[in-house]
Sequence to fold (150 residues):
Amino acid sequence: MDIKSKEARSRNMSKIRSKDTQPEKYIRSALFRRNHRYRVNSNAVEGHPDIYFPRLNAAIFVHGCYWHRHNGCKYAYIPKSNSEFWLAKFETNKTRDATVYNALKNHGVRVLIIWECTVRKMMGNADFHNETVAQIENFILKKEPAFSEI
Fold:
């Protein structure tokens, strides 16, 4: 049973944004401070990646663990009420993500997924922040691999 009324839950869910989320802004800021220039939500690329580097042919998606079903993550729980609807919704999201990744791969665009839980950990730990930004830079600047997750 949900602890909120149907109207309150609807109000909460309607405020969740699909772009310019706090984790996205955090990653963009970290990359900008390291003098990386990029496009945001580029319409020129399949799936409108959160961050796109045209010259390097690299796309970064900053995914919420809940919405995109990060395997084994505590934030990827299944709601107790209306679970059939949510399971169908999550499956649709995963299918769409796979379609977008395959389309990008076929166009030679490398894809990096950064999970929300990683960004949360980055915000609380300076050493982890620096290590993760170095991993992101390494992915952006190298030509391999074609797909990676952090």
In short: The chain has one domain: 16-145. The longest strand covers residues 58-63. The radius of gyration is 16 Å.
